[in-house]
Amino acid sequence: LGYVAVSQIGLLVISRVALSRGGLTTFTSADLLFQVPYGILGVSLLTALMPRMSRSAARGDVGAVIEDMSLGIRLSALALVPVTAGLMVLGPSLGTLIFFYGETTAHDARNVGIVLALGSFGLLPFAIVMLQLRVFYAMHDARTPTLINVAMVTVKVLLVLGAAMSLSDVQVIRALAVATSASYVAGAVVGHLALERRLGHLDLGTAMSVVIKVIGAAAVGLGS
Hints:
Shape: globular
Radius of gyration: 18 Å
Strand content: under 5%
Structural class: mainly alpha
Order of helices and strands: HHHHHHHH
Distance between the termini: 47 Å
Number of strands: 0
Number of helices: 8
């Protein structure tokens, strides 16, 4: 209940700012598209890993929990980083393809894709946060995920309010996507620190090595 209540605060702030700048539909549409790759790929990974982590946590096997989390991060990177690169490049075209119909102009449809492209960097951090939360849930800890969410919503709200006070209407809507993804990055960092405090050294060198390699490969693809 606490987690949901905190999330609603962030949603309320973003909705009010987006509505006041005439871009609520644009942001909402881009955010829904952002969720699709995670819903298809990320959720499938978590569904497979959650029973394993729960069994390991029940046995008190910290090493197995950490290994499952490392595996989840590696698989998430392999699945989602290429998608992120694709969205960065093809986001505007994708927005036009999906939304340019009826009363939606080509400009408005393309703007949805631009918002999506700007916020796509948060896809992997979002998946990592969701994985970290499930590690805590596997250990029957619902309090820490709520505190991590407090940190994410705080970052999001501060960035959104800062953008609202300093940017034009179009830039504000785009900044909402950046602020949302930045909050996922902050959540991943806070979650990592909380897990290290709970489980000890996580030894995620292998996972980070895979993440860096996949990002490097995706960057080469973007450059070409």
